[in-house]
Design goal:
With about 325 residues, the protein is of the alpha/beta class. It is built from 12 helices and 10 strands.
């Protein structure tokens, strides 16, 4: 008898952290549903909480349509630079998301949902399972150094990826007895030259006529690039170069290493039943405009684990 027909079996989907690489969660979910797998419980960390909340609210198709249409200048337009707690306050972006996708209470979602955040003062892992969906997703996505932290119930919360990048434990606590985990960090330390590299701000180098006709907006983009994303970011640390790595390169690389190590440690202690690992080594943390590539990577990752899904009688 298949697990899908067994009412006692609940499938949990643990969507991990990984900034812009998290759009691949959409591809994973789409591919699972094509195989007839519809998870009963959704838990997300960081970008996983944003995608997971949309899925739990039956709004994934709308979110996919929006992210596929994003261009680099759209992404820049949503970023409001701040020097208080992070480079990006995120007010514009999260206001848009609240208005269009997440204006609900967690308990009103179609599927059980939870998000992971980190208490900035104590370092304690916080599970957000009630209250505003957007507040939970915003807190869970407060990536240190990039997005400003969020105050919640009198305490400042940071990105959940600091303590639990792939929330398998939250899935199980919510009642899942089969957990499918999506690990966005598995391939982060692969050699970029083996898989190609695309500078996320290559649009800045295109002729003026190929870019936005609004000169004022182009100037804004250039200033943003110079302030937060220096030219050195387009090169990998594996190259022999003399210039000192940029602050964003150092931050992003450090977060990659941290999340990779924490993910391995957490999954060793509380292993999921199935792990989906999209190959995303050429997608950078702020490549939110490359959703289509990330979604395809998610779909391809599911195709590689079909035998595991069969083993658990999910297909």
């Amino acid at each position: 008898m298949s697990h899908r027909s067994n009412k006692k079996t609940k499938v949990g989907l643990a969507l991990g952290s990984g900034a812009a690489r998290g759009w691949s969660h959409i591809g994973v979910i789409n591919a699972l549903e094509k195989l007839g797998i519809e998870p009963d419980i959704i838990a997300g960390t960081s970008i996983g909480s944003l995608v997971g909340a949309a899925y739990a609210d039956d709004r994934l198709e709308a979110l996919e349509k929006w992210v596929r249409a994003l261009k680099w200048h759209d992404v820049v337009g949503y970023f409001d630079i701040s020097l208080d707690g992070g480079f990006i306050a995120g007010k514009k972006l999260f206001h848009f998301l609240r208005e269009n996708f997440y204006e609900k209470d967690i308990t009103d979602l179609a599927k059980p949902f939870g998000a992971v955040a980190t208490d900035m003062e104590s370092g304690v892992e916080i599970w957000l399972r009630e209250g505003s969906v957007m507040d939970a997703a915003r807190a869970s996505s407060s990536m240190p150094g990039f997005f400003t932290p969020v105050k919640h119930n009198g305490t400042w919360l940071l990105d959940g990826g600091l303590v639990n990048p792939i929330p398998v434990s939250l899935c199980r606590a919510m009642g899942a007895n089969i957990v499918i985990a999506v690990d966005l960090n598995a391939t982060l330390m692969w050699r970029e030259e083996d898989y190609g590299w695309q500078n996320p701000i290559e649009a800045m180098e295109k002729p003026q006529e190929e870019r936005d006709e609004n000169g004022e907006f182009i100037d804004k983009m250039k200033k943003f690039k110079d302030f937060i994303w220096p030219d050195a970011l387009g090169k990998t640390l594996m190259e022999d170069r003399d210039e000192v790595p940029s602050i964003i390169e150092v931050l992003s690389r450090s977060l990659n290493i941290m999340q990779l190590r924490i993910s391995r440690s957490r999954m060793a202690g509380d292993p999921p039943d199935i792990v989906v690992t999209p190959r995303l080594t050429n997608i950078n943390m702020l490549d939110f405009h490359r959703a289509s590539e990330s979604i395809v990577a998610g779909e391809e990752a599911v195709s590689r684990i079909e035998n595991q899904l069969k083993f658990y009688n999910l297909i």
